[in-house]
Structure formats: structure tokens, C-alpha cells
Amino acid sequence: MEIKRDAYLEQLKIRKDNGMIKIITGIRRCGKSFLLFVLFKKYLLESGVDNDHIIEIALDGIENEELRDPKKCYQHIKDAMKDDQKYYLLLDEVQFIEMEIWARILLYNFCSIITDHVAVNRKGKKHMLQVNYSVAYDACHYLLRLHGGEESPKIESLIEKNFLPIRPNRKYARQHRFRVPVSFLYRYA
Q1: Parallel, antiparallel or unpaired: strands 88-92 and 54-58
Q2: Whole-number Å distance between alpha carbons of 38 and 144
Q3: Which of 26, 33, 89, 91 has its Cβ near the most Cβ atoms within 10 Å?
């Protein structure tokens, strides 16, 4: 049995091209995904939108598990857009991407705590040292992903090996390649 949901569909139709993100909320199992992926998509197709210009991603499905990573999701969306025409992005269970972002923030905080407790054993060095967060982040990430039986690396010694000297009067600044976080705006109609 199909419930029409005309009032909700009409709200989406009215606001379709206003340039704003549409967020559908409601209790569990009330038909939000059905409204988005069936009813609204059917309306888009009937109003002349090409099927190629509708990008559907259900992040709760195991087939889209890798798209929970914001960078991979962004690349997937970018690859699906073949021209400069308008595209409709239909995302379901977008909180899975948010969970990935929060997991990365927690990992960064964990990394900061560990690096604060690393003792520096470099005798005779006159320079102050700073942590190379790219290496520390990767080491902590690896440590947290270990599964039964694997020997954990010596995180502190790995981080200590990758301290960088700070030389305030240096003529040329040290060139680092830090991983820059990628962000993008989630838009779906």
C-alpha cells in the first residue's frame, strides 16, 4: 500500500529551486526515505529532469559504506556530475557522515592527548621541538584500528622520532605538507 504524502511532496515542490538545502525530519519508519527516493524522484523525472542529474545516496546501506567518509562522498558526487547543469542530490541518513566527522575530531583529540605526554630524549639539542601532527594522527589512527593478535606499535617512540625542530630565527621557513581537511556543503532537494 502506498501512502501519497501529497502535503509533504507539495512542500518540496514549492521549494525545489530556491537554492536552499531541504531537510526532511520525522520519527523512525514514517516514510522519509520513501518520500525522497520514490515520490520526489518520480516528480523530478516527470518534470523533465534527466535521471543522470539525480544523484541518490543512501548512507545506511552497506553498499555505500565507503561514502560515509566525507572525502570519498565528495569525490563520488563530483564524479557523478558530468556537466554544468543543475543536479539534485538526494542523501538519506546523512548523520552517518556527521558520525565520521565526529570520529575524526575524537581521533584528533586522542592524538593531542598522547603527544602531550611524549617525553623528548634529545640531549644536547638547542632547539625547541614541535609535534608533526600528520605522523601522530596516522600512528594513533593505526593504533585504534588494531584487531586481535596484532602487536601494537610503540606510539610514543614513533611520534618522538618525528618531532620537528622550531628555529625562530631561521632564514627560510620550513616547508611542510600538512593534510588539509576537506569540507563541502551538503545540498539535496
Answers
A1: parallel
A2: 40
A3: 91
